[in-house]
Structure formats: C-alpha cells, structure tokens
Design a protein that fits this description.
Strand content: 25-35%
Distance between the termini: 119 Å
Number of helices: 3
Structural class: alpha/beta
CATH superfamily of the largest domain: ABC-type transport auxiliary lipoprotein component
CATH topology of the largest domain: Rossmann fold
CATH class of the largest domain: Alpha Beta
Helix content: 25-40%
Largest sheet: 9 strands, mixed
CATH architecture of the largest domain: 3-Layer(aba) Sandwich
C-alpha cells in the first residue's frame, strides 16, 4: 500500500514538473520580441513649377555653400512649439543635408526663371570658372509651427567679382502666408519647398535689376 502511495506521489510530481516546463517553454516563446518595421520616413525639398523669365543676358552666378543656423543642421525635421521650445521629429528626417537641398532648389529655380545662365556648383572658385556674381545665403529658420505656421527666414547678398567686390543687392527674406497641416511632415516639406522657391524669386528679381 505504501509503495503504491509513493508511486502516485512520484507520478504527481513528475506531472507537475512537465506542466511547469511546458508553461516556461510557452512563456519563453512569448518573450521573444517580434521584428518591428522602421517607422522613419525621409523627405526632400521639391522644385515647384515656375514661369520662366528670360533675361536679355542672364549672368553666371557662383552660389556659395548655404549656411545654416546651428540648430537646423540636424537630420530630423523641426516643429516649433514656442519661442523657446522646438521638437525634433526623429521619425521624419531629411533625405539629404538640408543645406544641399536648399542649394539644389535655388540653383534649379534661378535657371528655370532665366535669372542666371549658369549657377556654378558649390566649391568652384573664380580661378576655375569666371562668374558675374557671388551669391551668399544664410538660413536662420526652417521649420513648421505646432499651430500649422511655416517659419523660413534667410538673409542673402549678391556681390560682384574681383579684388574690389561690391555688394550690389541684399535682402532678409521671410516666408509669409504658408501653412502646413500640423501633422503630416510631407505637408511641411512641401510648404518649405515653396518658401525656398519664393526666396529664389526674390533673388531672381535682384539679379535682373543688377544687370540693368
């Protein structure tokens, strides 16, 4: 009788251990993390359609490297929440360095408008290719507002060439009347593209006046 009871207890313990092992195995499977897709999206500035304005003799322009305010140099897109608070959208990033994107749009816009016959690639010097004007652009703001506003500000100057270079035109451009939906960063990229295009228009007008 005692032998039967011991056997029953051993069988009960063995069954309990097997059940516990099965639970641990199932629990272990549940602990394995599932692969997650990368939610990051990448955006670029685009070139809006413009009306071509052909000047009588478009100048050759050397576009210097675009200068950015230090906080704009980050890859994530920026949303301003207040005068002193900004948010970096880590999952919404520029697909190229922002200074390259702005330079690309400026170049394509000035050529499309007929304001310049050639816009020299960044880095070329006067000793390599002759040009009529040197264009300097400093971007001080390039972000969206949490309320749907668009903040884009850039100072620029056009200077003649040579040892006695003279600034013939300059400006402090601020985008106006531009909005984005406050949620979709593609909407912000589109609005900022329009801002750069408007800056290009201002510079194109200055180039036309400078040539007389």
């Amino acid at each position: 009788m005692k032998t039967e009871k011991r056997g029953a207890r051993r069988a009960l313990r063995l069954g309990s251990l097997l059940a516990l092992g099965g639970m641990l195995a199932l629990g272990g499977c549940n602990l394995v993390p599932e692969a997650q897709s990368d939610p990051t999206r990448f955006f670029v500035l685009s070139v809006p359609a413009v009306e071509t304005i052909v000047a009588a003799k478009p100048p050759v322009v050397h576009l210097r490297p675009i200068e950015l305010a230090s906080y704009i140099k980050s890859k994530p897109m920026i949303v301003r929440r207040s005068n002193n608070e900004i948010e970096f959208r880590e999952y919404a990033r520029w697909g190229e360095p922002l200074e390259f994107g702005i330079g690309r749009v400026l170049r394509e816009e000035l050529l499309a408008r007929g304001a310049a016959s050639e816009v020299l690639a960044t880095g070329l010097r006067a000793v390599e290719i002759d040009y009529d004007y040197e264009l300097t652009v400093r971007v001080l703001a390039c972000e969206g507002g949490a309320d749907g506003a668009v903040y884009f500000r850039a100072t620029w100057s056009l200077a003649t060439t040579g040892a006695t270079a003279v600034v013939v035109s300059h400006g402090d451009f601020r985008a106006t009347d531009l909005k984005w939906d406050g949620k979709n960063e593609a909407s912000l990229a589109s609005a900022l593209s329009q801002a750069v295009a408007a800056l290009s228009g201002e510079i194109a007008t200055a180039l036309a006046k400078s040539k007389g």
